[in-house]
Amino acid sequence: MNLVCDKKVTVRRKITTIVQINPLQYKIHCVHPLIQMPYFSYKVIVIAILLSVFILPVQARQVLIHLDTQTNSAELATLYQQGRVVKDLSPLPWLVVDIAETNARLRQANNLAIYEDIRGHFASTPTDPLYAQQWHLDEIGVPDYWNITRGEGVTIALLDSGVDPNHPDLKDNILFTQGYDFGDADADAYDANGHGTAMAGLMVAQCDNAIGGCGVAPQAKIIPYKLNQTDSGSFSSATLATAILAAADSDAQIISMSLVLDESAPWVEDALRYAQGKNKLLVAAAGNDNLPTVAFPANLPFVVGVGAFTKDHERFGNYGEGLKIIAPGVSLWTTQPGKEYVNFYTGTSPATALVSATLALLIASHPTYTAPELIVSLITASQDPAPAGWDEQSGFGQLHLSSVQTTDPHLQFSAFGKMVYHPNEQLNLDLFLTDLRGQSADLYLRINLPIDTQRISLYQLFNAEPTLDSIPFNQTIISPFPFTDDLQLSLFGENGLLIRGALIAGLTEGIYEVDATLITDAKQLAYQRQILWISAD
User: Is the bond preceding 91 in cis, omega lying within 30 degrees of 0?
Assistant: First the structure.
């Protein structure tokens, strides 16, 4: 039944159902009563709705908005101006609204509780017979992330022993004619060794085809660049440099190197820097010798150096400076030339393949991100085992994908405007300590940064020079510090406690990490970290 709106109408519902009569005529079909709203307010809202129909941005996301008695007509008008109501969940006090991805004002509107829509999926299991034995997929959060993307549109350059392009689990995902055999100097990058085919299977084996297992990014593609001669297990560094240059000039966004060199080669580093300049993601294996030295080229600050861990989360393989992340590296079912499957490839090579494929998923879900932004996203999502922050055993953490960022009620970093910074830019970073009134605690702050090929941890005191020794942040005031109210600390910026002013020139390019740990009664109360990338120029 239609209601006639006049100044005496009491409205209990902040939504009107709109019925189109013709392209230029609309009427209020029904109005449910909740707040006092004069007639002119309805006119404002209806006009706003009409405007939103024609100016709604093409890229939008769906959110849900909870309505309550505090919502007023002005806020409601703002809602209709900045979004499009697509569903009224009456009699529940919820609206389903499409809003522009870049529209931050709507999220800041007073008294509007806004929630991201939550995706659901059918609890089905892929039909691939080996899927149940691929423990690494659940370990790194891949099945849930497949609801977002499976890597479509992303290409990986695989620098290895070639690939079998006819394997039934790979044949549709191998761009074989775009590859090259640099070891034998011909266009046939077929894999006579098996290593490259195994890495390809971990990355892009097709899913739900009722054979074999699933790759981490089963809709991504691979360009194979063969490095070795025939079926040899070795190759020359000059060949590697040549292949890197070819991959850098290709359409691939990722260069995956499940390999190590016996020592550093400046010509290979130059080739990698060339690829970095082309915005390529560079991923390399840390090495399997269990040495406290990450192998070259994984140890370079701008390369994602990958270590490995077991089902029991025990780290193995090389570790130390240059280690960025660790990933599953044992009992990983994958493809072999012909129609075979094996699970005997162990170490940082398969772990590197998993990280490369995970980056393919991140690219597919964030197609506008630069390579450094994707690395920051990868590290931020990783699971950080004890000890907190970067360490020689696990780098920045264990590989994991998550679309939800964890928060803590006591410690929060201010949101960055961006993930990548350059010398002479102003980086403002604040730390907020909340809900601690009446408690006493110590706050530890650490910044972990690359200097040449080493990672250094600096600790800071109030009104003191940085030190390499781990100390409570508030030691020079009183320990433990009694909180009488919420506290905001400026860490980077004009009055920063860790870095004052703009970023200086000459900083080593790579990942910078800021850790905050709150300790009370000798127990960790809260921990947060912030990851960013600082460019060399």
Answer: yes
Please state, in angstroms and rounded to a whole number, the distance separating the CA atoms of residues 250 and 255.
10
Using CB atoms within 10 Å of the CB of residue 114, give its burial: 0 to 12 exposed, 13 to 18 middle, 19+ buried: middle
Q: What is the pLDDT of residue 38?
A: 42
How much helix, strand and coil, in percent to the nearest 5, is found in the chain? 20, 30, 50
Mean pLDDT is lowest, of 84-88, 199-203, 509-513, for: 84-88
For residue 271, give the nearest of 295, 238, 304 by alpha carbon.
238
pLDDT confidence band for 52 (50 / 70 / 90): very low
The mean per-residue pLDDT over the stretch 33-51 comes to 37
State the Cα angle at 523 between 519 and 524, rounded to 5°: 55
Structure confidence at residue 80 as a pLDDT band (50, 70, 90):
low
Coil, strand or helix: which one is 440? Answer: strand
pLDDT score recorded for residue 101: 45
Collapsing DSSP to helix, strand or coil, 201 comes out as: helix
Closest by CA position to 204, among listed 407, 50, 357, 94: 357
**Confidence band, pLDDT 50/70/90 cuts, at residue 404:** low
Question: Omega of the bond prior to 93 within 30 degrees of 0, cis?
Answer: no
pLDDT in tens, 280-336: 999 999 999 999 999 999 999 999 999 999 999 999 999 999 999 999 999 999 999
| Residue 85: CB atoms within 10 Å | 18
CB-count burial class (<10 Å; 0-12, 13-18, 19+) for 407: exposed
CA 303: distance to chain centroid?
16
Residue 83 falls in which region: left (phi positive, over 0), alpha (psi -120 to 50) or beta: beta
- The whole-angstrom separation of Cα 308 and Cα 346 is 9
Three-state SS letters, 328-375: ECCCCCEEECCCEEECCCCCHHHHHHHHHHHHHHHHHHCCCCCHHHHH
Q: Give percent of the chain with pLDDT exceeding 70.
A: 81
- Residues belonging to the active site: 160, 195, 349
Mean pLDDT of the chain: 84
Query: Alpha-carbon distance 8 to 393, whole Å?
Result: 71
- Asked if the model's pLDDT at residue 27 lies above 60, the reply is no
For CA atoms 368, 370, 371, 376, the dihedral sign is: negative
Distance CA 396, CA 388 (A): 9
Question: How are beta strands 83-88 and 281-285 bridged, if at all?
Answer: unpaired
- Label each residue of 393-409 as H, E or C: CCECCECCCCCCCCCCC
CA distance readout (Å), 18 to 7, 53, 381: 20, 12, 43
